[in-house]
Amino acid sequence: MSQTKRISIHGQWSSRWAFILAATGAAVGLGNIWKFPYIMGQNGGGAFVMLYLACILLVATPIFIAEVMLGRRARRSPVQGMAVLAEEESAAPAWKYLGWMGVVAGFLILSYYSVIMGWAMAYVERAMTGSFHGLDGAALKSMFEAFKADPMELLFWHSLAMLITMLVVVRGVRAGLEAFTVLLMPALFVILLLLVGYGMSTGHFVEAFSYMFTPDFSKLTANSVVVALGHSFFTLSIGMGLIMAYGSYMPEKVSITQTALFVVAADTTIALLAGLAIYPVVFANGLEPAAGPGLVFQTLPIAFGQMPLGVLVGTLFFALLTLAAWTSSISMIEPAVAHLVEKRGWTRVKAGIWLGLGAWLLGIASVLSFNYWNEFKMFGKTFFELLDFTTSNIMLPLGGLLIAIFATWMMRRETSFAELGLSPRMYAVWRALTRYVAPLGIVIIFVYGLGLLG
Ligand code: TRP
After folding, report:
1. Closest CA to 98 of 73, 122, 119, 71
2. What does the pLDDT look like over 64-77, one tens digit per residue?
3. Start-to-end CA span in the chain (Å)
4. Residue to probe by mutation, ligand 1, list 28, 107, 237, 269, most atoms within 8 Å of CB
5. Cα–Cα distance, 74 to 248 (Å, whole number)
6. Disulfide engineering: 280 pairs with which of 34, 204, 256, 368, CB 3.0-4.6 Å?
7. Is residue 40 lining ligand 1, measured as CB closer than 6 Å?
8. How far is CA 9 from CA 1, 81, 267, 337, 357, in A?
9. Are 42 and 221 in contact, with CB atoms under 8 Å apart?
10. CB under 8 Å to 403, separation ≥6 — which residues?
């Protein structure tokens, strides 16, 4: 089969920008604004940030490039695509299970992501009605606690979040979304800058800055190392075949590396800005950096309750957060949808509805783990925490490890060289990182962090 003639049955992106926008839309989401700030706080700040940046640069970025490359080469959904590539490179057919693991991981992630997306939606309503006005940290903490304790309210917003996700999924992820992301990303950037500006006015910006960028390695635990690695995968949406699926719709002529670097830069900037917006408020109000998943919901509303035009700014912030979550949530079951369409001949509508319903049902367990079931723990974690840990910190890095191995140990050098179109020098850098540094890094972190050696 001639390589250049292979075209995805799901269509192609209209331009290089379409891929960049879809991939940035998938990458920038709750991971940047909700998760990154709170896991940073749980893991002691600066040293964690350094470690996270190192993981992004040395492990996640090379694997991002490898994943796009596999997708564009295969022009198929991850399951089918891995099967085709394995055959082409005379590797074991079992490589298709890498695609399967991604399908499962995406489904599991969507189930709880939708719950948190619901939180952002609920806070749009609170911001709009001026509920934050004049409240201090303690009052906002109890507002959040009360919200979390109400399963019916969480269920309502989770259902709404899943519904709007499915609406886009069944219509095809590429329809109409480009225009939307073009506006969303700059808007998000501007509002974060505005909030960083507010942070400066609190007089605690320097403290926040040094908290984030002065590493104190004594604060790191084995667990922090695993979390930093896992988050570098989660935030870029890699390791589960989504970027492979999006890459499979990418035109031949586009530079994979340039687009990948753009997405990584945008994603990292937004995450760091979110930290710089939240932490001055944390320190100015004597709040706890390790507050956990409620962090953004308990801190920024203090600012919205005090600043001029706070109702407007707060509403805009949570609305943008919802939209950013939305352009991510629609991506998570894309590998599964593409697979069912390709292999089972289902329509997008049928695949989207069944997968969405399944993820919605499973999401109810996450909803309950914040209230009725919050005492019920396995390995010291609630259901939500366990699901988040297993998917982000185990499944995604494992998927990434296998992608790196396939792309640089199984695939012939000529194939990847041709597909990437890099100068020999840059190619050598990518290859060394993907072939040695990233896999070794992942294995070492797994062995050390998960205590595999006892
Ligand atoms: N990257 C997104 C975020 O930071 C989450 C996300 C979207 C994701 N698609 C994914 C994570 C696929 C893992 C796999 O919010």
Report:
1. 71
2. 999 999 999 998 88
3. 49
4. 237
5. 7
6. 204
7. no
8. 16, 12, 29, 13, 25
9. no
10. 63, 66, 67, 70, 98, 238, 239, 244
Which residue has a Cα nearest atom 10 of ligand 1?
237
Residues listed for the chain: 454
Domain ranges of the chain: 3-453
- How many angstroms is it from 115 CA to the middle of ligand 1? 14
pLDDT tens for 247-268 read 988 888 888 999 999 999 999 9
Residue 232 Cβ < 6 Å to ligand 1: no
d(C-alpha 345, C-alpha 338), whole Å:
10
Q: How many A from CA of 235 to the centre of ligand 1?
A: 6
> Distance between CA 123 and CA 299 in Å, rounded?
12
- Profile the chain (454 residues) by mean pLDDT over runs of 10 residues: 55 72 93 98 96 97 97 90 94 92 95 98 97 95 97 98 92 66 87 95 96 94 94 97 89 88 96 97 94 96 93 95 94 89 90 96 98 91 96 96 97 94 96 98 90 64
For residue 109 and ligand 1, the question of a CB distance below 6 A is answered with: yes
Please report which residue ranges of 78-176 form alpha helices under DSSP H.
78-88, 96-128, 137-148, 151-171
> pTM higher than 0.70 for the full model?
yes
Distance 453 CA to ligand 1 centre (A): 30
pLDDT for 6 equals: 64
Are 256 and 247 a contacting pair, CB within 8 Å?
yes
> How close is the Cα of 160 to the center of ligand 1, in Å?
19
**Bridge partners for 381 per DSSP:** 378
Q: Is 328 in the pocket of ligand 1 (CB under 6 A)?
A: yes
For helices 310-332 and 177-201, the axis angle rounded to 10 degrees is 140
The helix (run of H) or strand (run of E) holding residue 270 is helix 256-284
Distance 25 CA to ligand 1 centre (A): 9
The residues pairing with 378 across neighbouring beta strands, listed in sequence order, are: 381
Contact predicate 229/445, CB 8 Å: yes
Cβ of residue 327 lying under 6 Å from some atom of ligand 1: no
CATH 1.20.1740 assigned to domain 3-453? The reply is yes
Residue with token string 């939209």: 323
* Residue 106 beta carbon below 6 angstroms from any ligand 1 atom: yes
Of 79, 119, 163, nearest in space to 359 by CA: 163
Hey, is 288 helix, strand or coil?
Answer: coil
Whether 266 is in the pocket of ligand 1, judged by its Cβ within 6 Å, is no
